[in-house]
Amino acid sequence: MGVREDARRGGIDLKPWGKFDRGQRAVYPLLFHLLDVAAVAGVVWDRYLTRGQRRLIASGLGVTLAEARCLVMFFAGLHDLGKLSAFQEQEAHPWARISDTLRSDTRNWRSMPHERATMHSVLHLLAEAGYPVDTSDSPGVLVAQILGGHHGRFLQVDIDGAAKTARVNLTLGGAAWQDLRRRYFALVRHLTGATAVPTDVTVQAAVLITGVGIIADRLASQGHYWLPKAQAPAFGAGEHYAQAVLDAPALFEESGLDRVVLPETPFTQAHGGLDKPNDLQASVLEQLGTAVGEKGPGIVVVTDATGGGKTVAALEAARIFNATGDTAGILWLLPTTATTDAAYDILEAYVAAHRPEHAPVSLVHSHPYLNTAYNDHRLAAHAPSTSDAYWPGGDDGDEPAAGERPEERVTVPDGWLRGWDRALLAQFTVATHDQALMAALPVRFSALRMLALSGRTVIVDEVHALPPFMRRTLSRLLNWLGALGCPVVLLSATLPAGTADELVRSYLDGAGHPHAATAHLDCRPPYPGWLYAAARDASLTRIDPAAAAAHADRHRRRAGIRLHPVRHPSCTDPENTPAREERLDRITREIAPVAQLGGCAAVYCATMADAQATYEHLCAALTWPDGGPDGQLLLLHARLPGHRREARTRRIRTALSSHGERPERLVIVTTSLLDMSLDIDVDVMVSDLAPMHTLLQRLGRLWRFSHILRPAWLPEHPRLIVLEPTDHRGRTLLPPAWRPLDSPFLPLATAACLTRRPEQLLTLPDDVQDLVESVHGDAGELARADAALRRSHTLHQARTRTEEHHSTLHLVPVWHDTLSLSDLHRQNLHPREAATRLGTTPRRLLPVHRTPGGRLALDAAGTQPLPEQHKPTTAQIRTILQHTLPVPAAWVSDRRGHLPTPAAWRTHALLADLVLLPRSADDPTRPVRFGRHRLHLDDDLGLVHSAD
After folding, report:
1. CA distances from 96 to 88, 93, 375, 402, 767 (A)
2. Are strands 915-919 and 933-938 parallel, antiparallel or unpaired?
3. The pairing of beta strand 428-432 with beta strand 488-492
4. Helix (H, G, I), strand (E, B) or coil at 508
5. pLDDT single digits (tens) 788-816
6. What CA–CA distance (Å, rounded) separates 69 from 45?
7. Which segment, 145-154, 652-661, 861-870, is predicted with the most confidence on average?
8. Regarding beta strands 540-542 and 457-460, do their DSSP bridges make them parallel or antiparallel, or are they unpaired?
9. Of 644, 634, 706, 713, which Cα lies nearest the Cα of 671?
10. Which of 224, 249, 347, 580 is the most exposed place for a label (fewest CB within 10 A)?
């Protein structure tokens, strides 16, 4: 029989199953599922892929756009062909329905993962269809690997071994099964119209095609879609496919993946009422718009002092890139969850200001459930992203709490987009750096991440905050983004020029301009200003010097950084040495006027233990008006329960924002949590010694807004007080607890640099780049001035090289070194194990109370009991996670004799690894011992840690 006959009623065997629901004993024919996925893939091509992605795929296959669409549907439809194998025996009920002819022709077949069976069986079918399969980079071999990668990992094809036709026929059933696979293959090809044979399959095209197939498979695998079709099946394949083509657009629309075009909006409306662009932003609008119109996508580096308007410049650059039609949307990457939460509010407001009918903005980091602005009422109880679960509405009856955004808001993602890796697919996304860097690691579904990144403009904020380990990963990711034609915007206030040059060259190398060909280019951006490197020809465009000068003039201000030697409590002076100023005493002197006379201040501490000690000292040592420090002195660090930390962060961002209701008096004691991308302003600032780029970032939040009325007692110019821990001889001595935070050389070099200019005021932004380069660029000159600093510099260089080496070990190869798709998954890394930064992965701690009745609860009164005997509901999961806090895994590694996690939680990915911290009703401050570590949760201080 031919394909036309097979498509008709009774034309082909539909008994082999692809989906089975045990509860309803519903069996769904495999062929129908294949055709469903093919139909959905066509809609994904039409409505999700951008013009640039479609062109890249068509060019990578060597065919027209129309032919490429058919081929992508064909490949997606073949993804589960390997289920025509021993897979059919996995479920007794659907296996019993298989015809006697097939059941008697198994030939002792061997069970194997169906994705590998698909890859092996398709290879010789592709050869029969005219696809070359002679070498590992032949089109047929790469297509087989695309199909084998639909479960997230590309597999090696042994074309002369396990994938050889004779071996495949021995392991995947007899002639009847071989014939049925051949007929299914031919029928899917016929119905999708994929008659063209690609002349090539580039690695870039293969990665994107794989991502399309994964999306289509996940959408078509949702139970609410296929179960009704299983209960009322079509009579033939042709009839089913015709209906699937009609049903696919509605299914896709439910996912929230539809691309939208933001309406043209005046600059003032789009950016929260700004009167007009500043000189930097105006140059982006004028110069970059012209350059991108001529050259197309590329990479832009924007450098400017904190508060200079880089965010608006980046959003305008993204608008310019997206206006070409090759990309649509924004992915904004930041270093921490706190900065990501702040950026979410900005991007959400930016998108909403365009007044689209519906434009989801997703938030992607490890704890989005803590952000009340991104309140997720649909947290899956089973969590894995490949689940078939579907939430047509708030089925658990949750209602938005007071102050939370309603679900009907046009920027709130639909249910399908709330999956942990699917959220990256939203057109507008804010995420931590880690979420994007995972695309450059050999983890499952890295192709899906790469597809999600490549269709829009990627903004990488706070690039300077990346340590060498992460910077090397970013460099590899930029290489791939260059290869995929994805525009990129890098933002930083304190980026060494050499680092910017390196990252730009990595992008250009991916775009087809090897390092040797760009060696003559000076890819260092001006400061302040921007640089654009075109992916097409590696040509460079810089901000007009006149515009850069005008911008610097308009934002020029004077500020001081004063270094104060102090004794840290960890340093014990020898006997008979003169008394020195204590760290806490100096902080008290600087903050006392704020407590007495008013103002807003920030005290940045190097560690959480220092922050807790500082907070306690200021509570007791200062006289606070209005009955005490409550509401006037605030402690913020990472080891507060999530709901408290998020509430405090929002209060700070609101009170100290440009247009917030500024309190008469507020002192914040914090750590690096408030370092980056928070648009806040304080009158007084004290900081422990830190690397130069960190101090300059903090300085940018001192007198940030010119319209703020300052207290009369303040000096003429803003002044950052830096506390330098020293020994009794006056030499910089870093406390032991500070040394793991960063390379010791950086704070030591910063202290040496600041010592050279003790009372000299800085001119911002003029002096910023020189200070950055002296410590974070070529610090050799500074290191040569002191033998101890020179030794520290040598160790710093060795540490940097070691971090870069460890990072490189796990990275996927650059695209032009990828001969086989399996090269992208040579290592078997799980996302939980993959490292995007050096250091131990933290554990989540959940403080709990035991009620008089013996139940566990989140509060001492027992009003929030925990579900111990049954699976938690959606609302309960969210509440539990909001009460957790991170701790180093070593602190809780010894849990002998401790409360175990309830058995009902152990099947949930986010609850299974929680560590319970019991709190005593009689004495809440009594610590709980975990081996040599003692922990207790203080209502004011957060988690308090001590060790033997």
Report:
1. 10, 5, 46, 54, 78
2. unpaired
3. unpaired
4. helix
5. 999 999 999 999 999 999 999 889 999 99
6. 7
7. 145-154
8. unpaired
9. 634
10. 224
CA distance 12 to 339: 57
**Amino acid type, 725:** P
Instruction: Give dist(CA 624, CA 30) in Å, integer.
Output: 73
Q: Indicate the residue type of 42.
A: G
How far apart CA 810 and CA 551 sit, in angstroms, is: 42
Q: Which residues contact 652 (CB under 8 A, 6 or more apart)?
A: 634, 636, 668, 674, 678, 680
Is residue 528 reached through a cis peptide bond, with omega within 30 degrees of 0 on the bond before it?
yes
Q: Rounded to whole angstroms, how far apart are CA atoms 538 and 533?
A: 6
Question: Rounded to 10 degrees, what is the CA torsion of 205, 207, 210, 214?
Answer: -130
Helix 223-231 and helix 237-255, axial crossing angle in degrees, nearest 10? 150
Tell me whether strands 665-670 and 599-604 are parallel, antiparallel or unpaired.
Answer: parallel
Q: Is the pLDDT of residue 375 over 70?
A: no
Residue 856 backbone dihedrals phi, psi, to 5 degrees:
-90, 140
The model's pTM: 0.90
Strands 557-566, 428-432: pairing is: unpaired
3-state secondary structure of 307: coil
Give the model's pLDDT for residue 628. Answer: 75
Which 3 state secondary structure label does DSSP give 518? helix
What is the distance in angstroms between the CA of the first residue and the CA of the last residue of the chain?
Answer: 79
Instruction: Name beta bridge partners: 459.
Output: 332, 489
Look-up of token digits 């055709």:
35
pLDDT at 358: 81
Pairing of strands 719-725, 557-566: parallel
Residue 417 Cα to chain centre, angstroms: 15
Q: pLDDT of 12-50, one tens digit each?
A: 989 999 999 988 889 999 999 999 999 999 999 999 999
One-letter amino acid at 591 equals: I
Rounded to 5 degrees, what are φ and ψ at 846?
A: -120, 105
Residue carrying the six token digits 């050389």: 745
Residue 492 backbone phi and psi in degrees, to 5: -165, 145
Q: Are 118 and 218 in contact (CB under 8 A)?
A: no
Rounded-to-integer distance, Cα 467 and Cα 624, Å? 40
Q: Phi/psi at 915 (nearest 5 deg)?
A: -110, 125
Q: What is the average per-residue pLDDT within 108-128?
A: 92
pLDDT for residue 913: 85
Mean pLDDT, to the nearest integer, of 548-560? 94
Copy the structure tokens of residue 507: 């992008």
- What confidence tens digit (pLDDT) does each residue in 323-360 have? 999 999 999 999 988 788 889 989 999 999 998 888 88
Q: What angle do CA 845, 851, 857 make, to 5 degrees?
A: 35
Per-residue pLDDT tens over the stretch 503-553 = 999 999 999 999 999 999 999 999 999 999 999 999 999 999 999 999 999
Q: Look up residue 151 and give its two tokens.
A: 């479960």
Q: How far apart are CA 896 and CA 141, in angstroms?
A: 52
Rounded (to 5) percent helix, strand, coil in the chain: 45, 15, 40
Written as six digits, the tokens of 266 are 């005046």
Name the helix (H) or strand (E) containing 843: strand 843-850
H or E element at residue 101: helix 100-103
**Backbone dihedral angles phi then psi of residue 716, each to the nearest 5 degrees:** -70, -35
Q: Which residue has the tokens 């679900």?
A: 407
Q: How many CA atoms lie within 13 A of 495 on its CB side?
A: 30
In the chain, the amino acid numbered 644 is R
Q: Which residues, at least 6 apart from 901, have a Cβ–Cβ distance to it below 8 Å?
A: 911, 912, 913, 914, 915, 916
Residue carrying the six token digits 């008994």: 15
Q: What is the DSSP track for 432-448?
A: EHHHHHGGGSSBTTHHH
